[in-house]
Design brief:
Chain lengths: 200, 372
C-alpha cells in the first residue's frame, strides 16, 4: 500500500467519523474531534519549531552569532509567563510591543477605512446605484443615532436603514451558506476523487 | 394540508441525506454549465495578464490561510499560478503564517506538473514563510531582494534570474492575498497609500461581504469571492490564457466560447491537414505512432486521445499528449475543480431554496389551520 493511499484512507475514515455526527452524537465522532484538536496543536507546534524557531532564532543566534536577536527573543519568551499566576504580569511587555504596532498603523488605517470610504460616498448621484448607496448610508447612520426617538416621519425614515441592514445580513447569510456548502463540496471531492478515484 | 404537516415534522436527517445527494450526484456526473464572470474577477485577470512577457513586471501571491479554507481558496491559487505559467508572468509567493507555507508548495507542485518547462528561481520564486508582516510589507517597497534575503530553498534572492528587472513595488506592482479572514488589510493600509501598490484579494464567501467597501472604493483592484470567484478565474484562464488570446468582453459572450470551457471529458482532437502536418513535424520520432490513431472525417483529421492505451501514451510522451488534449479542449480535473464544485453548489442551492419555500408555506398553512 502506497503512502498516498494510506494517508487518503485515514483522511476518509476521519471525515466519515465527523460526518457521523449528522446522524447522532457517537464515540467515533468524539474520537475524531479530540484527535483533530490534539493533532492541530501538535502540527502547529512542530511546524513553528521548524519554520520559525530554527531559521529565525537558533540559526541567527547560535550559528551566525547575531546576539542582538536575544533581546526580541527574550521579550517573546515573556508571553509564556501567562502560564504562571505569579509572573503573568510580565506578559504585558510583549503585548505592549504589539499594541505599539497597532498604534503606528492608526493614521494609515484612518485613511483606508474612513477617509477613502467617505470620499467614495461623496460623489455626484449620477446613477440609481449611487443614489441607493447615498440613501442607505444616511438612513443606517441615523438608525444608530439614539438621541432622538424613532417615531413619526423620522421613525419611518430611519426604518429604511433597518431594511438596508436586513438586506445586508441576508447577503452575508447567503454567502455563509455558500461557504459552508463549499467546504462540504471540498470534502466530498476528496472522498470521491482522491479516495475512490471516481472522477476524471 | 397533510403534506405540509409532514414537511414540518420531517426528521432533519432526511434533509441531510437529500443535501448530500444534491452534492454527490453532480460531482460524480459532471455537466457543462456556464459561469458568468463578474467585473471584480475580470479586472484582476486583466491586470495580471497585462504583465505577460514583461521582464520588469511581477505579481506576489500571499498565502495567508491554513488548510481549513483550502476548498475555496486553493482552486483560486491554482488558477492564478496556471495563468502566470501559461502567459510567462513572473510570480512570487510567500506566507506570513507557518501553516500557509506548505500550501504554497502544494499549489506550485499541482500546477508545475503540467508545465515541466517552468523553473524555480527563473519563472517563479517561493519566499516561503516570513515572519514580521509589517516589516516585510514596508521593506519590499524599498528593495525586495534585501527584505526577503533568501527564498524557501535557501538561495540568495538577489542572485536569482527572476530578479532581473525587479527591485520593488514599482515592478512587482500587484499583490494578491488569499485569506479566510480579513484579507489584504496590511497591504491596503501600509503599501497602497505609501507605494501605490495594486492590491487584490481571494477570500472565502463568508468574508466577501466585508471586502466589498474596499472594492467599491477602488482600494482593491479585484476580488475573487469563494468557489464562485475561483470558478470564474478558471474559466477566464481556459478561454484566454491557454489559447494565447488577450481578454475581451465580446469574446466572452461569443457562443463558440462554450466549446473551450466544457468541463466534461473532451477526447477528440481535430486538425486541418496543414495543422496535422505541422503537428507531425514537431514530433518526428512519434510520427508513426500518431498516424496509427489518426481518423479522417469530412477532410478533418481526428485523434481520440482517450483511446490511446497507457503503453502508447508513455511512448508518445508528455508534450504530444498535452498538445492532443489541448487541441481537444480537454481540461484536467485540477484545473476545473471549482467549476465542477459550482455545479454541485448550484444544485444544493436549488434544493435549499425549495426546502425554505416549503418550510415557510408549511408554517403559514399550519398557522392558518390552527386559527380555524
Amino acid at each position: 500500500m502506497s503512502f498516498e493511499l494510506f494517508s487518503n484512507l485515514i483522511g476518509a475514515f476521519f471525515t466519515l467519523c465527523i460526518f457521523s455526527f449528522l446522524y447522532k452524537d457517537n464515540p467515533l465522532y468524539q474520537m475524531a474531534e479530540q484527535l483533530l484538536v490534539g493533532l492541530s496543536v501538535g502540527y502547529s507546534l512542530v511546524l513553528t519549531y521548524h519554520r520559525v524557531f530554527i531559521p529565525y532564532v537558533y540559526q541567527p543566534i547560535v550559528i551566525r552569532h547575531q546576539f542582538m536577536l536575544i533581546i526580541p527573543f527574550l521579550i517573546g519568551v515573556l508571553y509564556l509567563t501567562r502560564l504562571t499566576r505569579k509572573l503573568s504580569w510580565l506578559s504585558r511587555y510583549p503585548i505592549a510591543f504589539s499594541v505599539m504596532g497597532v498604534g503606528s498603523s492608526f493614521a494609515l488605517s484612518l485613511h483606508t477605512a474612513i477617509l477613502v470610504q467617505m470620499r467614495q460616498a461623496m460623489v455626484p448621484l449620477e446613477s440609481i446605484n449611487l443614489t441607493l448607496i447615498f440613501i442607505g448610508t444616511i438612513t443606517v447612520l441615523l438608525y444608530f443615532f439614539f438621541s432622538k426617538a424613532h417615531s413619526g416621519t423620522y421613525g419611518k425614515f430611519v426604518n429604511v436603514g433597518k431594511w438596508y441592514m436586513m438586506i445586508g445580513f441576508g447577503a452575508s447569510f447567503g454567502l455563509t451558506v455558500m461557504a459552508r456548502v463549499s467546504l462540504l463540496i471540498g470534502r466530498i471531492q476528496f472522498l470521491v476523487l482522491d479516495v475512490l478515484g471516481l472522477m476524471k | 394540508m397533510k403534506f405540509f404537516k409532514r414537511m414540518q415534522e420531517l426528521d432533519r436527517r432526511w434533509i441531510y441525506i437529500i443535501i448530500a445527494l444534491a452534492i454527490v450526484v453532480p460531482l460524480m456526473i459532471p455537466f457543462d454549465s456556464d459561469n458568468l464572470t463578474t467585473p471584480s474577477t475580470e479586472n484582476l485577470y486583466q491586470m495580471i495578464d497585462s504583465f505577460s512577457g514583461r521582464e520588469d513586471r511581477a505579481i506576489l501571491m500571499s498565502f495567508a490561510h491554513d488548510a481549513s479554507t483550502m476548498p475555496e481558496l486553493f482552486p483560486m491559487e491554482v488558477a492564478i499560478l496556471r495563468h502566470c505559467f501559461e502567459r510567462n508572468i513572473k510570480v512570487f509567493t510567500f506566507s506570513n503564517s507557518p501553516l500557509g507555507a506548505p500550501i504554497i508548495d502544494y499549489a506550485i507542485n499541482t500546477v508545475k506538473d503540467e508545465y515541466p518547462q517552468i523553473e524555480s528561481g527563473v519563472h517563479y520564486c517561493n519566499f516561503g514563510y516570513k515572519p514580521n508582516m509589517f516589516a516585510i510589507v514596508i521593506g519590499m517597497g524599498d528593495n525586495i531582494a534585501t527584505t526577503m534575503n533568501v527564498d524557501a530553498e535557501g538561495r540568495k534572492v538577489e542572485t536569482l534570474p527572476i530578479m532581473r528587472g525587479i527591485t520593488n513595488y514599482t515592478e512587482m506592482n500587484l499583490v494578491v492575498e488569499f485569506s479566510g479572514s480579513v484579507a489584504g488589510g496590511t497591504w491596503i493600509v501600509y503599501a497602497r497609500p505609501k507605494f501605490g501598490l495594486n492590491v487584490a484579494v481571494g477570500v472565502t464567501a463568508v468574508m466577501a461581504a466585508d471586502q466589498y467597501p474596499y472594492l467599491q472604493s477602488g482600494q482593491l483592484i479585484g476580488m475573487l469571492s469563494g468557489l464562485k470567484g475561483a470558478a470564474e478565474y478558471e474559466k477566464l484562464v481556459d478561454v484566454f490564457a491557454t489559447n494565447e488570446q488577450s481578454f475581451s468582453s465580446e469574446k466572452l459572450s461569443d457562443p463558440r466560447i462554450r466549446d473551450l470551457i466544457k468541463i466534461t471529458t473532451q477526447s477528440v482532437a481535430s486538425f486541418t491537414q496543414t495543422e496535422f502536418t505541422a503537428f507531425l513535424n514537431r514530433y518526428p520520432q512519434q510520427k508513426d505512432l500518431i498516424e496509427k490513431y489518426r481518423e479522417e472525417k469530412d477532410g478533418i483529421i481526428q485523434i481520440n486521445w482517450s483511446q490511446i492505451p497507457p503503453q502508447h501514451t508513455e511512448q508518445l510522451g508528455f508534450f504530444v499528449m498535452d498538445e492532443l488534449q489541448r487541441k481537444a479542449n480537454h481540461i484536467k480535473y485540477s484545473f476545473k475543480t471549482a467549476r465542477v464544485g459550482m455545479n454541485a453548489q448550484s444544485v444544493a442551492h436549488i434544493v435549499m431554496i425549495v426546502f425554505i419555500i416549503l418550510g415557510n408555506l408549511g408554517y403559514f398553512v399550519q398557522k392558518l389551520s390552527d386559527k380555524k
